Amino acid sequence: VLFRSRKAIKFCLALAMVGTMASVALADVTTSGWARFGLKSSTLADATGDNYSKMDMESSALVAIASSMESDGWTATAEIDLLVGEDYALAADWYSFTLAKDGMKLILDNDDLGNAGQGKSYAGYLDSYGKAGDHLGHGNTLVKVAMDMGLTAMIGINSETGSGYTQQDLGVSYAGAAGDISYAVVYQTYTKTIDEKDGGVPFSADDGATGSDMGIGVGMAMGTMGFNFAYGTKAETPGGLLAVETAENIMQLGADIGLGDDTGITVVYDTTSQTVDGENTGVMTNTYVAYKAPMLGCTLSAAYYSTTTTPEGGDALTTGAIGKIGRA
Known about the structure:
mainly beta, 1 helix, 17 strands, 62% strand, disordered N terminus
């Protein structure tokens, strides 16, 4: 079995967590998983109006292993998700170790705070969906403190051997509900410092790079239907002598329509404006329509999306895809 070198450390650490938990007497161990098989058809239209099509096969599989135990009012839980992707390489896609007591959790994992968007329960597994407050990349290990009141704080200090830099991550999120209205706010930031002993280059793009993103989301349930709105911003400035800020602003509108048990339709429209050094560089709009339903013991998802990118002062480029169907 091949390991992706970048994720090998995460895999070993997470596997050690699960092994430790499973070796404890009377610990509960559970497994679950899914497999996805899909056919994706894309139609591309260039600025001259010429169209061309392509078709791709998609497949992936995941096995999740979790172990938990309780002692003196504490609950300890460890989980690892093992993913086999398109290149058939086994990798630890996600891991988590949690200690919980009296409404507070201490979490060690490799996941960020998530986006602020509400709803989207039938979105299947659309790519690049729900980006409000979920833009930034981060290191491999993050520590979070979460409380039942909906507040979560995140901190991480990460450095990959040979990268030449260390990244410091900070973030906070708050989520809650009032009747049929749900809401969330997410804020994250990072800074980078170089390590010359590890190959870092002074005045390079990593030397003093910074980034931040913010997302606000509101959702309202109305019987079997739900409507949601989200707004997000992102700004990143590389280090070096010629640092120029790049920024994005995104707005999303969505609706979920329930048709039965775990069956329904999600429709989303979003628009993203992009700037470089304060100057507009273009606008991107996306339209998503997704359908999800159980069938023959599987959960089948079908999705259609179209993307239109309009460079500042240029022509629009439209792409579309249909036929993402699989078990999730």
